[in-house]
Amino acid sequence: MLQNLPDVVAGALRAQRAGTDQLACTLVERPGELSAIELSSPAFADDAALPTEYTADGAGRSPPLQWRGVPAGTVSLVLIVEDADAPTPQPLVHAIAVDLPVHDGGLDEGALGGANDPVTDGVTTGRNSYLQTRWLPPDPPPGDGKHRYHFQLFALAAGAKFSSKPVHDEVLDALRHYAIASGRLIGTYERAEGA
Protein backbone atom coordinates (compact mmCIF):
# COMPACT_ATOMS: atom_id res chain seq x y z
CA MET A 1 0.00 0.00 0.00
CA LEU A 2 1.68 3.24 1.13
CA GLN A 3 5.17 1.72 1.27
CA ASN A 4 5.06 1.58 -2.54
CA LEU A 5 4.61 5.32 -3.06
CA PRO A 6 7.13 6.93 -5.41
CA ASP A 7 9.73 8.97 -3.47
CA VAL A 8 8.52 12.28 -4.92
CA VAL A 9 4.94 11.59 -3.76
CA ALA A 10 6.03 10.33 -0.34
CA GLY A 11 8.18 13.45 0.09
CA ALA A 12 5.29 15.75 -0.75
CA LEU A 13 3.05 13.98 1.77
CA ARG A 14 5.49 14.27 4.70
CA ALA A 15 4.25 17.74 5.56
CA GLN A 16 0.60 16.65 5.57
CA ARG A 17 -0.85 15.27 8.84
CA ALA A 18 -4.47 14.61 9.74
CA GLY A 19 -3.92 15.69 13.36
CA THR A 20 -5.49 14.73 16.66
CA ASP A 21 -8.13 17.44 16.43
CA GLN A 22 -9.97 15.30 13.85
CA LEU A 23 -9.98 12.06 15.88
CA ALA A 24 -13.33 10.65 16.99
CA CYS A 25 -12.42 11.06 20.68
CA THR A 26 -11.67 14.76 20.16
CA LEU A 27 -14.82 15.41 18.15
CA VAL A 28 -17.08 13.49 20.56
CA GLU A 29 -15.73 14.07 24.05
CA ARG A 30 -17.42 16.70 26.11
CA PRO A 31 -15.16 17.80 28.99
CA GLY A 32 -16.49 16.52 32.30
CA GLU A 33 -19.41 14.63 30.73
CA LEU A 34 -17.90 11.29 29.70
CA SER A 35 -16.66 8.81 32.27
CA ALA A 36 -13.45 6.86 31.66
CA ILE A 37 -12.98 3.30 30.43
CA GLU A 38 -9.59 1.68 30.91
CA LEU A 39 -8.40 0.37 27.52
CA SER A 40 -5.21 -1.71 27.23
CA SER A 41 -3.54 -4.47 25.26
CA PRO A 42 -1.42 -7.42 26.38
CA ALA A 43 0.58 -6.93 23.15
CA PHE A 44 1.80 -3.33 23.62
CA ALA A 45 1.85 -0.54 26.21
CA ASP A 46 0.14 2.81 25.77
CA ASP A 47 2.13 5.10 23.47
CA ALA A 48 4.54 2.27 22.62
CA ALA A 49 5.36 0.55 19.34
CA LEU A 50 2.91 -1.94 17.87
CA PRO A 51 4.56 -5.32 17.31
CA THR A 52 5.27 -5.84 13.59
CA GLU A 53 2.87 -8.81 13.43
CA TYR A 54 -0.08 -6.37 13.69
CA THR A 55 1.11 -4.24 10.76
CA ALA A 56 1.37 -4.56 6.98
CA ASP A 57 4.97 -5.70 7.48
CA GLY A 58 3.79 -8.74 9.46
CA ALA A 59 0.74 -10.98 9.50
CA GLY A 60 -1.55 -7.94 9.55
CA ARG A 61 -3.83 -9.23 12.33
CA SER A 62 -5.65 -6.89 14.68
CA PRO A 63 -4.05 -6.74 18.14
CA PRO A 64 -5.76 -8.08 21.28
CA LEU A 65 -7.53 -5.49 23.41
CA GLN A 66 -8.89 -5.46 26.96
CA TRP A 67 -11.16 -3.01 28.73
CA ARG A 68 -12.48 -2.33 32.22
CA GLY A 69 -14.83 0.21 33.76
CA VAL A 70 -17.82 0.01 31.41
CA PRO A 71 -20.41 2.16 33.19
CA ALA A 72 -23.96 1.22 34.15
CA GLY A 73 -26.45 2.30 31.49
CA THR A 74 -24.24 1.16 28.61
CA VAL A 75 -26.17 -0.71 25.90
CA SER A 76 -23.33 -1.14 23.37
CA LEU A 77 -19.64 -0.49 22.86
CA VAL A 78 -17.99 0.94 19.75
CA LEU A 79 -14.32 0.73 18.78
CA ILE A 80 -12.70 3.07 16.26
CA VAL A 81 -9.00 2.92 15.35
CA GLU A 82 -7.59 5.97 13.57
CA ASP A 83 -4.15 7.15 12.42
CA ALA A 84 -3.71 10.77 13.50
CA ASP A 85 -0.50 11.07 11.48
CA ALA A 86 -1.84 9.88 8.14
CA PRO A 87 -0.78 12.12 5.24
CA THR A 88 -4.44 12.89 4.57
CA PRO A 89 -6.86 15.69 5.56
CA GLN A 90 -8.75 13.34 7.94
CA PRO A 91 -7.38 10.55 10.12
CA LEU A 92 -7.14 7.23 8.31
CA VAL A 93 -9.70 4.80 9.76
CA HIS A 94 -8.11 1.39 10.38
CA ALA A 95 -11.09 -0.31 12.01
CA ILE A 96 -14.63 0.18 13.24
CA ALA A 97 -16.47 -2.35 15.40
CA VAL A 98 -19.98 -1.67 16.71
CA ASP A 99 -22.42 -3.37 19.08
CA LEU A 100 -19.64 -4.99 21.11
CA PRO A 101 -20.79 -6.73 24.34
CA VAL A 102 -21.48 -4.32 27.20
CA HIS A 103 -19.26 -5.71 29.91
CA ASP A 104 -15.64 -5.58 30.92
CA GLY A 105 -13.80 -7.82 28.49
CA GLY A 106 -12.00 -7.39 25.21
CA LEU A 107 -11.21 -8.65 21.75
CA ASP A 108 -8.84 -11.50 20.94
CA GLU A 109 -5.96 -11.14 18.52
CA GLY A 110 -7.33 -11.17 14.97
CA ALA A 111 -10.94 -10.56 16.06
CA LEU A 112 -11.27 -7.64 13.63
CA GLY A 113 -9.95 -9.75 10.77
CA GLY A 114 -6.89 -8.93 8.77
CA ALA A 115 -5.18 -9.48 5.47
CA ASN A 116 -5.72 -13.25 5.67
CA ASP A 117 -8.04 -13.66 8.65
CA PRO A 118 -11.84 -13.50 8.80
CA VAL A 119 -13.62 -11.32 11.34
CA THR A 120 -14.52 -13.26 14.50
CA ASP A 121 -18.14 -14.44 14.69
CA GLY A 122 -20.23 -12.03 16.72
CA VAL A 123 -18.09 -8.97 15.91
CA THR A 124 -19.81 -6.43 13.67
CA THR A 125 -17.28 -4.39 11.73
CA GLY A 126 -17.83 -1.14 9.91
CA ARG A 127 -15.94 0.17 6.90
CA ASN A 128 -12.36 1.39 7.23
CA SER A 129 -10.95 4.16 5.02
CA TYR A 130 -10.44 1.64 2.20
CA LEU A 131 -14.15 0.65 2.54
CA GLN A 132 -13.22 -2.81 3.81
CA THR A 133 -14.99 -4.35 6.80
CA ARG A 134 -11.86 -5.57 8.53
CA TRP A 135 -8.66 -4.42 10.24
CA LEU A 136 -6.51 -2.26 7.97
CA PRO A 137 -2.95 -2.95 9.19
CA PRO A 138 -0.70 0.07 9.82
CA ASP A 139 1.26 0.83 6.66
CA PRO A 140 2.94 4.26 6.97
CA PRO A 141 5.11 5.60 4.14
CA PRO A 142 8.85 4.93 4.64
CA GLY A 143 10.64 7.85 6.28
CA ASP A 144 7.34 9.49 7.29
CA GLY A 145 8.16 9.35 10.99
CA LYS A 146 6.24 7.78 13.82
CA HIS A 147 2.50 7.30 13.24
CA ARG A 148 0.13 7.15 16.23
CA TYR A 149 -2.73 4.67 16.01
CA HIS A 150 -5.53 5.69 18.38
CA PHE A 151 -7.65 2.78 19.60
CA GLN A 152 -10.79 4.52 20.88
CA LEU A 153 -13.53 2.69 22.78
CA PHE A 154 -16.90 4.30 23.49
CA ALA A 155 -19.79 3.21 25.70
CA LEU A 156 -23.19 4.18 24.29
CA ALA A 157 -26.54 4.74 25.98
CA ALA A 158 -29.83 3.46 24.55
CA GLY A 159 -30.91 4.77 21.18
CA ALA A 160 -27.87 4.27 18.95
CA LYS A 161 -28.57 2.23 15.82
CA PHE A 162 -26.14 1.25 13.10
CA SER A 163 -26.43 -0.07 9.57
CA SER A 164 -24.96 -3.52 8.86
CA LYS A 165 -21.62 -2.04 7.71
CA PRO A 166 -21.43 1.47 9.19
CA VAL A 167 -19.04 4.11 7.92
CA HIS A 168 -17.09 6.61 10.02
CA ASP A 169 -19.55 9.53 9.72
CA GLU A 170 -22.51 7.35 10.73
CA VAL A 171 -20.66 6.10 13.80
CA LEU A 172 -19.41 9.58 14.69
CA ASP A 173 -22.96 10.94 14.57
CA ALA A 174 -24.16 8.21 16.96
CA LEU A 175 -21.25 8.87 19.30
CA ARG A 176 -22.03 12.58 19.46
CA HIS A 177 -25.55 11.78 20.66
CA TYR A 178 -25.16 8.64 22.77
CA ALA A 179 -21.58 8.33 24.11
CA ILE A 180 -21.43 8.18 27.91
CA ALA A 181 -17.84 6.95 28.44
CA SER A 182 -14.63 6.52 26.49
CA GLY A 183 -11.14 5.12 26.65
CA ARG A 184 -8.09 5.43 24.45
CA LEU A 185 -4.92 3.44 23.82
CA ILE A 186 -2.18 4.58 21.44
CA GLY A 187 0.12 2.25 19.51
CA THR A 188 2.87 3.63 17.29
CA TYR A 189 4.57 2.38 14.16
CA GLU A 190 7.12 3.79 11.70
CA ARG A 191 9.22 2.67 8.78
CA ALA A 192 12.76 3.83 8.19
CA GLU A 193 13.65 5.71 5.03
CA GLY A 194 14.10 3.24 2.18
CA ALA A 195 12.29 0.42 4.02
Q: State the share of residues found in helices, binned by percent.
A: 10-25%
Q: Structural class per helix/strand content?
A: alpha+beta
CATH class: Alpha Beta
* Uncertain ranges: none
Please name the fourth-level CATH homologous superfamily.
Answer: PEBP-like
Q: How many distinct beta strands?
A: 10
- Ends: how far apart? 13 Å
The whole-angstrom Rg is: 16 Å
What proportion strand?
25-35%
Q: What is the 3D form?
A: globular
Mean of residue pLDDT values: 89
| Largest pleated sheet | 7 strands, mixed
Tally of individual domains: 1
Explain this structure.
The structure is a single chain. The chain is of the alpha+beta class and 195 residues long. The chain has a single domain, classed as PEBP-like (Phosphatidylethanolamine-binding Protein), CATH 3.90.280.10. The protein has helices at 7-13, 24-28, 168-178; strands at residues 35-36, 38-40, 48-49, 65-68, 76-83, 92-100, 105-107, 124-125, 147-156, 179-189. The strands form 2 sheets. Strands 1, 3, 5, 6, 8, 9 and 10 form a 7-stranded mixed sheet that branches. The chain has a 3-stranded antiparallel sheet with strand order 2-4-7, with no helix packed on it. A hairpin with an 8-residue loop joins strand 5 and strand 6 (92-100).
Could you write a compact summary of the structure shown?
This protein has 195 residues and is α+β, with helices and mostly antiparallel strands. The protein is built from 3 helices and 10 strands. The chain has one domain (2-189): Phosphatidylethanolamine-binding Protein (Alpha-Beta Complex).
